[in-house]
Amino acid sequence: MHKLPIDISSVEKTEPTKMASHELQYLYDISVKIKPKILLESGTHCGQCSTYALFAALVENKTGILYTYEIHKPFFDAAVAFYIKIKNSEQAIVLKNEDFVLAVKNLSNDFFKDVDFVFLDGGDERADGGHKLPGEDYLKNIDISENVQSFKLLECRANDGTHVILHD
Ligand SMILES: C[S@@+](CC[C@H](N)C(=O)[O-])C[C@H]1O[C@@H](n2cnc3c(N)ncnc32)[C@H](O)[C@@H]1O
After folding, report:
1. For the chain, which domains are there?
2. Atom 9 (ligand 1): residue with closest C-alpha?
3. pLDDT tens, position by position, 40-67
4. Whether residue 66 has its Cβ less than 6 Å from ligand 1
């Protein structure tokens, strides 16, 4: 098991997260093992939990770039404020204030050929941070949840062998 370059246990306490330390460690370890060229993440939140574990692995790998998507502007701004303090972070992370599903739809084939790892942790939460109830998307006439939409898109777009992990 690789050790995270920075201890994230204290970060975990300052940001609400549903991810436990062992899950963050797993994300880090698998990313060190896979050494992705392009990693996509849905649901940055404030960037200090799953995003940080993925980012830390790419820094350890000295290769790869994480494109992470957060739909809610205040969370996105908090993540930008966090990464701006880390020297040269832009070499390993690109923060996007966009809807993940729309963004993935619009990515070019040329870009997608290098996407080899996707981490999905977006759509179970509302923009205000509250949790969606099961079926809430259906009530709003959105036919399927963001996670299912993401899977369907990835089925069409992802290369053979692309790793896809869902947290829910
Ligand atoms: C469960 S939280 C993410 C937690 C984070 N990965 C962590 O480790 O703490 C889900 C996040 O996804 C965001 N979100 C919800 N729908 C989204 C979408 N369609 N595109 C991008 N972000 C989305 C929410 O605003 C929320 O910040």
Report:
1. 20-166 (3.40.50.150)
2. 17
3. 999 999 999 999 999 999 999 999 999 9
4. no
